[in-house]
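User: Can you help me understand a structure? I only have the sequence.
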Amino acid sequence: MANPKQLSREAYERLSAELHDLTTRGRIDIARKIETARELGDLSENGDYHAAKEEQGKMEGRIMHLESTLEDVEVSDSAAATDVVSQGNVVTIRYEGETDTEKYLVGSIEERREGIIVMSPGSPLGAALVGAKEGDTVSYEAPGGSLSVEIIAIEA
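Assistant: Let's start by predicting it. Here is the structure, written out as tokens:
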């Protein structure tokens, strides 16, 4: 069995609410659109019907994604302590030889926040950062070779 996905309480509640909305109001609305479009006649040249069916397909795809995401999830009420990097933390790093810093949220794309890039803890850089402390320098293998980054700050 795969490891459970980790989500913050906020992300879990947001995704659960979206799933509920799509499986109730969303499905009813799209069924009405399809029915209205069918009443317009010949379905082979009916743009409204085809647009409604395409919208239905996209919505059902999102529903399947949300169900899959929420099926095997571990909900955490807050990010772990900020003395070491863990999932849910925002990490400020500086690449070796650079002066500029970059901020990343270590976690699932569903945890996204405005203005912060999400980094999977399973990515090469994410895996190198998890468990490291502020001030540590970690290395990881990138397609262009080995890179090193210094951890400047860790935030919850």
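Now, to help you interpret it: The radius of gyration is 21 Å. Residues 50 and 90 are 43 Å apart (CA to CA). Let me know which part you'd like to focus on.
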